[in-house]
Amino acid sequence: MPPTEEPKYMKTVVFEKIQQLRIQDKPIPSLHPGDVRIQMELCGICASDLAALRGDVSDYAPPVVMGHELAGVVVESRHPDVKTGERVTLNPMLSCGHCTYCQNDLDKYCNTIEGIGHDIDGGYAEYVRMPKHGVDTGKLIRVPDSILPEELLFLEPLGCCLNAMRETLFQNSVAILGAGPIGLMFTQLAKRAGLATYVLEPLPHRRAVAEKVGADAAFDTSPDAVAQLRDISDGGVDTVISATTNNASAISLAFESVRRGGCLNFFGLAPEGEELRINLEEFHYAGHKLMASWAFSRASLEESRQLLIEKALDFVPLLTDRFPIAQGLAAFENAAAQRGVKTALHP
């Protein structure tokens, strides 16, 4: 019998334009010298992908195969420093590597930034091409086989959380708004830091997961629940991290939960056009510290990698729903409806 030809096409989930996502058969990416081909095992659906599809964020260049929370294996390498069979994930921000920002581990501010899954085809596919420039600038992250794909897909978002933890001002207590995957990782990191940790989340099934992974208490977002939080924290928590969509209600909830002089980190994305309006006199006397953290650094991704090796966090309750790429539209609908916690795609 003649040998079976390898398939030349693969299933992908393509963000074509706002409100339009499509399953497409695309050619398996060809490699140039120095490139690497990765076979995708799992790729998580990120809140930023959902926001892009809604039209709430603009840092995507459709048409593009989305997906940047990737777990995979190198199946072909044309780079001398990369071997086939290595388990990998990606730092999805490809930057120049030599500007002032890149030299100071602030790649996200580089003027030439290109995002895998944003501008370059990403992980909602059977195979992903990592260009030579990405390998040369350290954006291919190798991990030991002891890290399972179900853990590895969290390396990049955990790096974002670690970056925020370093930037945020903490004292003794923290309230985390939202018990999605990001909020639940913040919950575990806050407990590791020895903080009294409270979670505010409207969905009962997510509140239950927050308590399972270590929250001291999980509340709904009703006025009575906020009053209870303020009571047990002596007038409000020291710090609030908003790990949810920062719409008007979340912004209000953040200010209602924090004490005078406390820190608020608006980590989550915001709907297009959302504004934060402050009475400066009231702000002056309240003494709040306002900030926003986003993305990761190379250092925070390395710290994330180490925490995964140490099995320091529990990801089992976070990854709740998996869909094949061919059912990618249903996967996005599931994630948007917040039916579980984390939704991921697989070949």
- Under the CATH scheme, the architecture of the largest domain is Alpha-Beta Complex
- Broad CATH class of the largest domain: Alpha Beta
Give the termini separation.
28 Å
Q: What is the count of structural domains?
A: 2
CATH superfamily of the largest domain: Medium-chain alcohol dehydrogenases, catalytic domain
Structural class: alpha/beta
CATH fold label of the largest domain:
Quinone Oxidoreductase, Chain A, domain 1
DSSP E strands, number: 18
Radius of gyration: 21 Å
Strand portion, in percent? 25-35%
Overall residue-averaged pLDDT value:
97
- The ordered H/E elements are EEEHEEEEHEEHEHHEHEHEHEHEHEHEHE
What spatial form do the alpha-carbon principal axes imply? globular
Number of helical stretches of at least 4 residues: 12
> Describe the biggest sheet?
7 strands, mixed
Q: pLDDT under 50 segments (min length 5)?
A: none
Helix content: 25-40%
Topology (elements, then pairings):
Elements: E1 9-17, E2 20-27, E3 36-44, H1 47-54, E4 64-65, E5 69-77, E6 87-90, E7 93-94, H2 100-103, E8 114-115, E9 127-130, H3 132-136, E10 140-143, H4 149-152, H5 155-167, E11 173-177, H6 181-192, E12 196-200, H7 204-212, E13 217-219, H8 223-232, E14 237-242, H9 248-257, E15 258-265, H10 280-286, E16 289-291, H11 298-309, E17 319-324, H12 328-336, E18 342-346
Parallel strand pairs: 11-12, 11-14, 12-13, 14-15, 15-16, 17-18
Antiparallel strand pairs: 1-2, 1-4, 3-5, 3-9, 3-18, 5-6, 6-10, 7-8
